[in-house]
Amino acid sequence: MSDVSARQRLDTPRPSRRLSFNVDPEAVGRFSESIARYLGTGRYLAWQTIIVIVWIALNLVAVSWQWDPYPFILLNLAFSTQAAYAAPLILLAQNRQENRDRVSLDEDRRRAQQTKADTEFLARELASLRLAVGEVVTRDYLRRELEEVRELLETLQADHGAKVKKDKAKKASAAIDDLSP
Fold first, then answer.
1. Where do the segments described as Disordered lie (predicted)?
2. Is 150's pLDDT higher than 70?
3. Residue 34: what are its φ and ψ, rounded to 5°?
4. CA 97 to CA 32: how far, in whole Å?
């Protein structure tokens, strides 16, 4: 298919004529965070101080090398440029940290809700167990009941023994009565 017919077709998207510049936002964010971390270190401040002292010393002492005479406008321009780039990079790093904090806070909130639900469930279970334990036979209650049953059995056994003796006595007296003429 020729190029002309491809441009005329409606189902074929046109290629972009603009030069596209694809940037990974995550990579830019990580890079900006690393710069922001470095800008906040003592090492950076020490190097910046050394560079400024050398810059000023060379421009004051080395007359033939004076590329930035006394008001040090080029040095001020360098600081302004640095500040113009450092501030947005630091803000970008802060925004990324804020997003991480928000995700962490949401996770903590979710975990707290789950913990609360688990605690409420366990409290209900504990309450039901307390109610169930209140209805369970205790050792003392069971001993008392068994003691009563034992006493009842002894009483019945004694009554039965007396009845058996009575019956034997009746049979014996009946047997004696049958033997007497």
1. 161-181
2. yes
3. -65, -40
4. 12
